[in-house]
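Hey,
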Amino acid sequence: MDSILLFIIVAVTLIVCATTVSFCIAYLHGAVVVSSRHDIIRRALTLASVTRNDRLIDLGSGWGNVLRMARTEFGATAIGYEIAFIPYLYSTFRGDRVLLRSFKNSTIENASIIYLYLSPKMIRSLIPQIISYLDNGMRIVSVSFHIPGLVPK
């Protein structure tokens, strides 16, 4: 009985430590893992007119809720970039396509939609990259924060 209790204590401690380190790494890269409510995600994807012909890239996909909804409810191909290991694992185990790396140097030119739920500072750092793709018809969805220099449609 003592060995089982010790195992449980060690396992919980490791999970807590891994989660803390994962979120600290994300924070040091300028991102915080925050989940959006499903009704907000659904509304944003509806306003973006997401269809099965779209390739959506979620920059900072967190727990993968946007990826899952874009894929299951709208039929889109959805790919996420996530730097925090625990949310990456969670969304990967749920069947989402997620890359464990920073989106700062990501390849987004093949996307028809870029989904952002990022801080204003992170959005400002991406503006030059994002604006260069808008002429090709790419749609940008930013939840909660506007993109300086762009007028919403």
